[in-house]
Amino acid sequence: MSAPTIGPVGSVPAPKGPPPRSIADLAERFAGRVLVVDVEELVATIEAAGISDRQAQVRYGVPTVFALGEAVLAQLWAQRGHPGARPRRPAMAPFARAALARAALFLTPALAANAGGATLDRVGWPLLAITLVLGWSGGQALACAGYARAGHGAIGSALRRLGLGLLVGTAGCGALVALGPSWLVGARAVAYAVCGVGLVAFATVAAALVGDRVGAVLRWSVPVSLVSLALLAGLLPERYTWVLGAAVGLAAARAFAPALRRDPPGARMPVRTPYGAVAAYLLIGAGQAGAFLLVSRLEAGAGAAAVPLLLAVPLIELFVGWHAAGAAAGLDLYDDLATYRRHLRALGVVTLAALVPPLAIGAALVFAAFRLPYELSRHPDARTLVLSAAAGLLLAGVWAATLLLATRGRLVLAALLALAPVAFAVVPVAGWLVAVPTGSAESLIQVLLPATVAGLAATSVLGLAATAHTVFHSGSYR
């Protein structure tokens, strides 16, 4: 049933003059001649003016003439203050809160890991690295698979599959702890708990995203933050680190609570798992975790590299959320295709410019590391600290470009960009190990640090090129 909208006293005259350039122009042509009419009559008048479905697509960015008529009516409703007029939604307001909530959720496991540093020291570093890569990459891959089901309303089924993946990963880590050598595992009893809690923390983040319960899970994660701060401040003795694990379990219980519910009947349709996207996110997570391990193992500069990375997490989420909101807002703000494409080009320029500062500041720090004043150059770790800070900034820029490419659907490019820093660093280190097989760990660090920084700088340049190709290509916004 069509509602009475705008119509003529007699018949609706076709607009005269040059062809309107936008839906707003077309509505202005009808506004002075039209009083009340059904949508069908307005569509017939538009067709009588010589506007076909093809012209509606090319000139006005709508699929059919009927959709064009509805859009013109919406404009006329708004002009006359009709109570049924659709209010224009805010262009970019909602994204900031959601982006900051996701950033806080991502940083909660990092805070917990920092608080449990004394316990982590009792576990072999290779096992910690394996747990980090498995949890980081597996969490992203399982979240991608879960989104496919959750998008059809099958949230419970998606979370149950995610929980199954968590059980498989935990069983694998448990077998590695039980059978692995002592140099890899460390204290076995502690290793079981650390691996289990670490994987649960990653799965909690993935479950919160898949179930669209970020705010609720973040509130239930407040005990994790409080216990972590108490441990860091010395208010809670180290022997109570188990309380931190219990707090992580509490947040996980809230994240996986929807898995106990039965999905609605309409959501029980078979959903095809996007295996290509799952594999891409698996590689993206592995590359991000590997790059983080590279910059975090720069000995004296580990803190200098970690600080800019942690500070960059909310900025990256805001940046990507702003870009996505800007692209979506263009559909509401602009009526014709040409104007919308100009909006996308302007958005792409600002997006690309926002990725330049990490590269520029990181390159400046690299240059400064080899031009330190005499007083600072005498410090044994001065150059390492400056290069580590540069590595952290460069990696933050790479992560921003990677997440942006993934958001725009360029998953292959995002996976290659995420893996590039590891590849750039591993190749020269492997050559050094072949040339100097009996070299010391200190000599290896001296090779690894410059190779990591150089690889991150090259990856940042590649990331800028890939981002430019993506944001200026209209096909990326479909």
From TrEMBL:
Keywords: Membrane, Transmembrane, Transmembrane helix. The chain crosses the membrane at residues 99-119, 125-150, 162-184, 190-210, 217-236, 242-261, 273-295, 307-334, 346-370, 382-405, 412-435, 447-472. Residues 1-20 are annotated as: Disordered. The keyword DNA-binding does not apply. The keyword Transmembrane applies. This is Membrane protein involved in the export of O-antigen and teichoic acid.
